Every structure is written in C-alpha cells, then in structure tokens.
Amino acid sequence: MPWLELKIGAREQIQENSPRIFLVSSIYIILMTVMWQLIYKLPLATNAGELYLQYLTEGYLLSNASIGTILSFLRPSGIPFAFVLWLLTPVLDVGYANYCLKISRKQTGDHKDLFDGFLFSGKIVLIKIVTTVLVVLWSIPFFFPALAAYYRYRQAYYILLDDPKKSALQCIRESKHIMHGNKLDLFLLDLSFFGWVLLNSIVSLMFPLPFPLPLVSLWLTPYYGLTCAAYYNQLLKNITV
After folding, report:
1. What is the pTM of this model?
2. What residue spans of 105-193 are helical by DSSP H?
3. Domain boundaries, given as residue ranges, for the chain
C-alpha cells in the first residue's frame, strides 16, 4: 500500500483544516497527558505495565520469576485507580479517531467528536480487554506473534465507528479479516513515524517541568491520526474492488 501518499494527503488535510484541527488535537493531548501522568506519577500508580513491555521488547520469555517480578511492582491500592484510567484512555482514543476519520472523509468535525466514544464505551472497553488478552496470550511463546496480533486487531475501533450496532467481537473478527496480508504495511507505516516520535521524546525531556511538554505532539497527533484514518479508508476500498 502506498502509505507515502497517505501521509502526503494527511499533511494537506491538516493545512485545509487548520487552525481548528490543532485546537481539537490540543484538547485531546491535554486530556490524555493528564490521565497518563496520573497513572505514572501519582503515588497510587503502578509501573508493572512498563516492566511487562520492557520484557517484551527485550525478547524475554515470561517465566514464573519474571511474572513474580512484574506482580511485585503492583501496588494494591493503585490497581483500581490505574485500571479505570486504562479503560478510559481507549474511549478518548476512539473519540479522536472518530474526528480524524471525519476529516479524512471530507466531513465536518469538531471537539465534540472527542467524546462520541462514550456513546458506546462498553463496546470500546470490551474490544480493549479482549484484544489485550489476545496480545498477551500471543506474547507467551515469543514477541513477534504478539506484535502480529496487535496489528491484526488495529482496525476494530474504526469498524465500530462505521457501524456502532456491531458487537465488539464482530469488530475484532472483521479487523482480523481486513488486516490479512496487510499487517506488514501498517507496521512500516508506523515505523515511518519513528523519527517524529523520537523528536517528540527528546523535546519533552529538554524542558525541566514536572510533566512532558508535548510540543511536537501538536503536529504529530493529527498527522498520525489522519494517516491511520486514510489507511483504514484505503483498506475498505481494496476490499470492495
């Protein structure tokens, strides 16, 4: 899939919809930044998730010892709080994806779209839980099956946005179907944003503030969001051809 063309189209749409798109993106960035800072900075937070991801990226197999290490980082008083925030983040993610999907389809979008995910939050949360469980199960033998599983279910939220009447499991199954043979394309698309992500991290660390300053995110967030929405639209076109 010519994802370079998708990125060019995303940049053009940013220009066509500015400054509104930056305002909506700013609201989304602020909300997400606050929630993640609550998860990782407050005393009730847990970094067990970070440790688990570290094990995955370093290619370690999950053993009784490593699982025990992960569980030792869990603070019982913080688990419910972190879990609620963890469930809330995909609802806002879907709201922003909804906004980007509208823009990519030449429709009118505004900040109210950020909260549309709450209209079917139960299905969003169920998709999050089921796909997370599937990815974790695939990570037990090795890292790469988990990575493939992650990309296999990436379109489930977009499918739900197109038809909120569909069940969460139906969206997951349809995502698996349309991503067949396309997982590597989406991985390469994500990889093409690595430089922007690295720059964003460097800029955030340069400011001695108690929280990251997402300066680059103001551009990167709509750029990546519109590109992913365009990728989904292209997938649908390829299926109907």
Report:
1. 0.80
2. 121-139, 143-152, 156-162, 168-178, 183-191
3. 3-240
